[in-house]
Design goal:
Layout: H1 6-18, E1 83-87, E2 96-102, H2 107-120, E3 124-131, E4 134-140, E5 144-153, E6 156-165, E7 179-180, H3 185-188, E8 198-199, E9 203-205, H4 209-213, E10 218-222, H5 226-239, E11 243-244, E12 248-250, E13 255-261, E14 267-273, H6 276-279, E15 287-293
Antiparallel strand pairs: 1-2, 2-6, 3-4, 4-5, 5-6, 7-8, 9-10, 10-15, 11-13, 12-13, 13-14, 14-15
Helix pairs in contact: 1-5
Length: 297
């Protein structure tokens, strides 16, 4: 799997922060898949307003009366059941970030479609694999490059697509999110270096006894879902030239282990959880992050 890149983290950040206010506003759910394909250049699609849907709109995207841009690359495949979603402004005339919904279709079916169609259309899959928020693919074409993130939410499978001409994908806009000061962390945080970058929405809390017994040295609260805490922590670290390892996911406890390495070679990992029993607490409002030095065995 391709190592996590700052571009990928910033794309995720811009999705979650720019569209965060839309999470409760977009309440429509998926309608039956359309029977005809989507012509290039702007067929609009309406979405259903079935209130029985209880899934969460994790992307904040809207799929009501959206259209494809006229110059959207025709070489990028779209299944006939795709619904066009909202777009994010991009630099460059031929760079796009668009959400697509694949209602009533399993993730395996969507991935199988793209494996076949990308190869047939001259695309190369450079890397792919599970991500914290779903499944990711990095693909290239003689003329284009793209990052695909497949996410499950109220519309079914949602594709967050960023596509640009070759060599221009790194110019995608990032986030203006700032990170909190970590001065004095070395004195108050055991062996953690004082330049360890702490995201601004992390709030230091007393280290729970259960986590202390497991060797953790610092604990923070976070007022949102664990997956978003991972994204903010990853962005903070990578902005400060730290490296992020592969996430370990325990889906049964909604917990994650995120390893990292500092510029000087310092190694550690974070436990990120939304389950109070994992952190040894009675309740959790949002998530808890605990920091540990060394490599998890």
């Amino acid at each position: 799997m391709k190592p996590t890149s700052l571009l990928f983290i910033m794309i995720k950040l811009s999705t979650l922060f720019i569209l965060a206010g839309m999470l409760t506003a977009c309440g429509s759910s998926a309608e039956d898949a359309p029977s005809e394909g989507i012509p290039q250049g702007g067929t609009s699609v309406e979405s259903s307003t079935d209130d029985s849907q209880t899934e969460v709109n994790t992307t904040g995207a809207s799929f009501e009366e959206q259209e494809l841009p006229e110059n959207f690359p025709e070489v990028f495949p779209l299944p006939e059941y795709a619904k066009i979603g909202s777009t994010v402004d991009m630099p460059g005339e031929n760079s796009f970030r668009i959400f697509f919904a694949f209602p009533e279709v399993a993730l395996d079916e969507v991935l199988a479609y793209y494996q076949d169609e990308l190869q047939a259309g001259g695309w190369s899959v450079d890397a792919e694999g599970p991500e914290v928020t779903g499944y990711g693919m990095w693909i290239t074409h003689p003329e284009y490059e793209a990052k695909l993130d497949f996410i499950e939410d109220e519309y079914g499978i949602v594709l967050d697509l960023a596509i640009a001409p070759q060599g221009e994908l790194e110019e995608l806009p990032g986030s203006d999110l700032t990170f909190g000061e970590s001065e004095g962390l070395g004195e108050s945080g055991g062996n953690f270096p004082s330049d360890f970058p702490v995201p601004s929405r992390f709030t230091a809390i007393d280290l729970p006894a259960k986590l202390a017994e497991d060797g953790y040295q610092l604990a923070f609260s976070f007022p949102d879902i664990a997956e978003l805490a991972i994204i903010e922590l990853s962005a903070a670290l990578m902005t400060s030239s730290w490296e992020i390892g592969e996430f370990e996911v325990d889906s049964m406890t909604a917990s994650y282990i995120t390893p990292f390495t500092g510029p000087s070679g310092f190694q550690g990992y974070a436990l990120i959880t939304a389950r109070p029993e994992v952190a040894g607490l009675d309740t959790i409002s949002g998530s808890v992050i605990a920091l540990h030095t060394g490599v998890k065995e």
